[in-house]
Amino acid sequence: MAVKFLSEEWAQAVTDALNNHPGFKTAMGSAQLTIQFNTTEAPDGDISYYLTTSGGQAQMLLGQAPDADVTINQNYETASAISKGELNVQTAFMTGKIKVSGNLAKLMMHQKAITEWGSAIRDIEVDY
Q: Which among 63, 56, 52 has a CA at the least distance from the CA of 8?
């Protein structure tokens, strides 16, 4: 059954996929990282969500992270294209489709985990 993009069900499906994906778990290790995503122009209005990792576990939640290491601002078109695998994060960044602020060095240290994230969520059925 498909989950609606940027919904509570989607966030739980992403959490489950990340925690069950050996490549993501290996790449992330026990690192502590919190990435805040702010998405504008979504069908139901602007939405914020965040990924937090700690102790080898990942969690995707809707809302604002209390202490994000990195914040990514994007519009819905960009967020959905990245989620679908139609646009990679590096291209989105280089073309200004996403704006990144915060501890970029910490984000770059976990580039392999970001790549594995895409593999982990590939099989989630999502309604956009």
A: 63
- Report d(CA 14, CA 80) in Å as an integer: 14
pLDDT of 7-38, one tens digit each?
999 999 999 999 999 999 999 999 999 999 99
Alpha helices in 57-103 (DSSP H): 76-84, 89-94
Give per-residue pLDDT as tens, 32-75. Answer: 999 999 999 999 999 999 999 999 999 999 999 999 999 999 99
Cβ atoms 35, 51 nearer than 8 A: yes
Neighbours of 75 (CB within 10 A): 16
Ordered domains of the chain (ranges, CATH):
3-118 (3.30.1050.10)
pTM: 0.93
